[in-house]
Write the structure tokens for this entry.
Amino acid sequence: MRLAIHGVTGRMGQAVTRIAASEGISIVGAIASSGSAGLGRDAGEIAGAGAVGTIVTADAASGLLGSDVVIDFSQPAALPHLLKLAMREKIAVVSGTTRLDATGERLLDEAAKIVPVLWAANTSLGVQVLAELVTLAVQKLGLGFDVEIVETHHRAKIDAPSGTAERLRLAVEEARGELHRVAGREGNVGPRKPDEIGVLAMRGGDVIGDHTIHLLGHGERLELTHRATNRDLFARGALRAARFLHGKPAGRYTMADLLRG
Ligand SMILES: NC(=O)c1ccc[n+]([C@@H]2O[C@H](COP(=O)([O-])OP(=O)(O)OC[C@H]3O[C@@H](n4cnc5c(N)ncnc54)[C@H](OP(=O)(O)O)[C@@H]3O)[C@@H](O)[C@H]2O)c1
């Protein structure tokens, strides 16, 4: 598999570069923004992995040349251009870029008519398994159990709730239908309504990302937790997704498909 990395100079791009290099994957393209401090430098050296022989470029078209799969961790505004090029050059796309707008979502679907595409708000395999466990637990426990989600992230995170908390809320709704999302409670809010789901955010320190789903019943409660202790897990999941997509027919794929093999 010949790999291109879009957003190669970022926190995630560097993690993908480092792990891909350590696994002997051939990195043939390294793309960053036109204002990037990394332009003209070796992508492996930026990532602290030693030279990989691929120079960072802002020209996505030349950066994608010769690649089979591109892994993207960049920003929503950069994704449409990448997807158009991937369609033209027939390159599979793994994207973990979050907070996509309607155009980004639509282009993922369009691209999937031509090439294999896997987008995930969280590329960790553990979170995918957690989401499946949550759906199962909510199905089995039934309406007697209230569900609340608590997520914790580092103090620099600028948005809430996390994309992963939203993903887990959808996993609950898969079993229980649409629920009313409550972001916090204050004052005389009255008793909890049966169709509520609390999605609550804590912020502080250097927490990479913790998510707990509380299933609260009569006389018992379950807590299902995932804790990320290192960004590398997202990069490992994205690389596994890239290997999975390589050689697949065009279409939209998910982390659930990857686990199914
Ligand atoms: N799916 C997951 O599991 C997961 C996990 C973590 C993060 N994320 C998401 O992944 C994305 C990146 O996160 P990060 O923490 O790595 O961010 P980051 O450190 O800010 O890196 C962003 C990267 O995108 C590049 N970039 C910006 N504009 C670009 C453009 N127009 N064309 C090409 N490259 C461009 C930046 O290049 P320069 O800065 O060098 O110019 C940089 O390499 C975010 O959306 C984040 O929420 C997803």
